[in-house]
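From the shared-data thread, chain only:
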Amino acid sequence: MNRTRSLHLLLFAVFLLLLPAVAGAQAAPTFHAWVDRLNQPEAVDDALRDYVTENFHPTFLEQVPVPQAVGFLKQLRAAAPFSTVVLEEETAHAVRAQMRADNGSWFQADFELHATERTIVGLLVQPSAGPQSTSISWKSLDDLAAHLRDTFDLPGLAIAVSRRDGEVEQAVAGVREIGTETVVESGDRFHIGSISKSVTATVVAALVEAERLSWDATLDQLLPGAAGSYADVTLRTVLRHQARIPQHLTFDGAEMTRLNGLPGTTAEQRAAYVAEVLALEPLEPGFAYSNAGYALAGHLAERAAGLSWEELVREKVFGPLGLESCGVGWPATAERPDEPRGHYARGEGLAVQGLGEYRLGAFMGPAGNLHCSVLDLTRYGLAHLDGLRGKDGFLEAATVQELHRAPAETGAPYAAGWGIDPKTGLHRHNGSAGTFFSYLAIHPEKELVITLLTNVGPDRGAAAAERLTSEILDAGNSP
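Structure, as C-alpha cells:
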C-alpha cells in the first residue's frame, strides 16, 4: 500500500455473517467457482452487482445488502489472485478452506450454500495463519514470540497472555526499526488502529452510566436539526455498524490532506467532518463497518460531556485503569523518537515509516488513532473480561456486557467495538492504519486474554495473530 496515497483502517473480517444451511450436493465445486470469480481480472461494479444478485441467497442479502456485498467482494478481490486453496473441511453444504493471497497472506473462508437453491447463504472470510499442518514446538512465551517473528517475517512484536488468575505473561522479539539493533522492549508502544473503536465505545458506555447519553437516543435527539437523513438512527446502532453511515475505509492523498487540514480544535475538526458525513446519502439497511460511524460516536461523546475525545479517553478509560502507556497518535514522534516505527511493504521488502511521514488526523481519531503497550492493552482486555464474568469495575458488569452483546437478529456478530466469533467463542478485534497491526481477543468462558502488537501492516501481522491464537487455545501446548 502506498502510504502517501491511501489509508485503510482494517476491518475485523471481510464478511461478518454466517447463516445456517442445510444438506444438499457437495459444496466444494461451487466454492471453487467462487474463488475463480475472485481471481478474474477486476470487473466493473455493475458486473459484480449482477454476480451478487444471482449467486447470494436473499436471506444473506437481507442482512448484507447488495452494495455492501459488492464492496466487500471488491475489498477481497484486492488480495487476489488466491493461488493456493487448501480444503480443511467439506460437507454437502459447507466448506472451510485456507486461501493464500498473492501477497503471501492467508485467509480462512467458511462458505455455506442453501440446500435447494445452491446460492451462498453464509460466508465468513477473515485473516488466518494458514494451514495448521506445520507443528510448532515451544516451551515459553519467549519461544513463541521468536517463532512468530521469524515465521511471519515481522520487524518486531510484543505478545501477552492472561489466563484465569489474571496474571499477565508477556514476551517481545525483534527490533523497533529494521536496519537497527534497537530491540523491542516490554513497555514499548504500538499503534492499535481500529481497536480504538472499542475504547471509543467504552467512553460512550461510561457516559451512559453517568446519564449523559442513552443507548437508544436518536441522532435527531443528540444533534437537533443536524441529523439529516439519519434522524432516526440510534447511538446503539452507530456502535454496531448498523446505522447506514458511509464506511470511509480509505482516503486518497488529496482527501486525507484536506481532512487533516480542517480548522479549529480537535473537537471542532471532528464536528466539521461529521457534518460532511451526515450530509451524505445513507447506505442501505444492514451491517456496514464504518470508520465514519465511530468518528460520529466520538463527536456525540464530546457534545454530551463537554470534553474532547482525547480528554475523555484519558478520563474514562486510561486513567481509571492505570494505562500509562496509552495515548493518541503514532508511538514514535519527534519528542519520543525511540518508540517502534511502523513499516510498510515496498517491493519485496519493507520500508520504515518516517516521523511525520503520514498522519491520521483528529477527524478519524475515535475510529483508529490510539497507541498502547502490550501490557496495558492486555489490562484493558482484562477489565472487559471482568465485566463479562459479572464483576463490577471501572464500569458496571451489565454495562460491559451490553458493549459485547451482538443481537442475533442483526445477522452480523459485531457488538460495540468487538467482533463476536460464533465458532470459537472469542470476542476480538484487530486494527491497522497500514504500518502497524494490533490484535486483542477475550475468551470469556476460558477467562483468557490474548494480545499481539507488531510494527508492520496487516499482510503479515494478521497471520501472526491467528497463529498465536490457535497456539494458545491448544490446551496441549501452553507455557
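The longest strand covers residues 120-128.
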